[in-house]
Amino acid sequence: MRTQVGIIGAGPAGLLLSRLLHLQGIDSVVLENRSRDYVEARIRAGILEQHTVDTLTAAGLGDRLQREGLEHRGIYLQYPGTRHKLDFPELCGRTVWVYGQTEVTKDLIAAQLDGGPPLLFEVSDVRPEDVDGDSPRIRFTDADGVEQVLECDVIAGTDGFHGPSRAVVQGAAGRVWERTYPYAWLGILADAAPATDELIYAWHPEGFALYSMRSPSVSRLYLQVDPAEKIEDWSDDRIWENLATRFALEGWELTTGTITEKSVLPMRSFVSTPMRRGRLFLAGDAAHIVPPTGAKGLNLAVADVTLLAQALVRLLHEKQTDLVDTYSDRALARVWRCTHFSWFMTSMLHRSGDDFDAELQLSQLRRIAASEPAARELAENYTGLPLDL
Length: 389
Ligand code: APR
Ligand code: PHB
Description:
Layout: E1 5-8, H1 12-23, E2 28-31, H2 36-41, E3 47-49, H3 50-58, H4 63-68, E4 70-72, E5 74-79, E6 82-87, H5 88-92, E7 96-98, H6 101-113, E8 119-120, E9 124-129, E10 137-141, E11 147-151, E12 154-157, H7 165-170, E13 175-180, E14 184-191, E15 199-202, E16 209-215, E17 218-225, H8 236-247, E18 258-265, E19 268-273, E20 276-277, E21 280-282, E22 288-289, H9 297-318, H10 322-349, H11 355-370, H12 372-383
Parallel strand pairs: 1-2, 1-12, 2-8, 5-15, 12-21
Antiparallel strand pairs: 3-7, 4-7, 5-6, 9-10, 10-11, 13-19, 14-17, 14-18, 15-16, 16-17, 19-22, 20-21
Helix pairs in contact: 1-6, 1-9, 9-10, 11-12
This protein binds adenosine-5-diphosphoribose and P-hydroxybenzoic acid.
């Protein structure tokens, strides 16, 4: 087999890259080790920045997003006694959209299977090879157990945090930057109409809570818990009681409903540099992880592949190496900005158990509520900074 761009991983990063290249007349093959059902069922975050919506729409993936996505014009920051609204259009002229990553993935797969480039599920033993030379290849075993070789001009490692590409790019010269946080999120999906018009980020002495949603009848809620916490110890009643305590505000009531999914998510920041070695390019979770507090993971993956697609078009159509040569630095500028913002939101909102920290957090929250420049800084980062910083 031969293609121009061999893409490892069919998450949002790999699928969108394949789509963007296809629209520019560049061939690719996407190799995914899981099944289609598995990939389409994974529940992940749900906030799309303006540039993500624009990119998906321009790529012909905007139909269901425009119909079912919910445009949000702000968020609430809550701390005891106060629920303060940040109005994004007023602060920075942009909005965000609630549309689950699961839905984005389904739309991308549907487009790919409808006349798009090949997408192979359930492959195994995927290995990028000879990435330092001009003709790299990917060896893998297909779903029928047959060993295959995919010859490529370029390989994209969009295989998420656990994929094989990052180790190859790291080689001897790479570097990893990491922070693990001493808390986790317990997340639920509930058949309950959202009791709020905008997402609520709540600081509370007992821990952070986030009120999000997926549709007019499905709420997505999170509680800060200890990373060692076992999901079996959290009955539905205990979850609702904790949510009611942490979101409590006079004159407001939490609506409950049937919990259809619950899980505990770890929180970490992770950056792997550089994002390129020879003809192998990393994008998305393969190169970086952010804690979910700033809702940046998916948006960062989309920003990476937008830059990468432009660079590969220039390389493969015009034989110019300038954009591939600067890809890693340009992508990392945005990665570090989002890494900072996600760390900042996480640090401001989670209870560390230290009362000095708590006073600093409350002081920062009050500052954002009182100062337009402070609020604008948050709004600009939350709704998404320009692609190329
Ligand atoms: N071979 C082939 N595919 C692989 C391999 C492998 N060895 N290892 C992992 N994969 C696949 C995974 O099964 C997954 O489908 O690579 C894909 C990576 O997708 P994601 O983990 O979704 O990562 P990415 O596409 O970068 O999406 C960015 O945004 O909200 C965040 O973390 C969230 O997934 C999200 C991310
Ligand atoms: C979500 O809806 O899953 C969500 C929203 C905002 C975040 C994180 C997760 O900051």
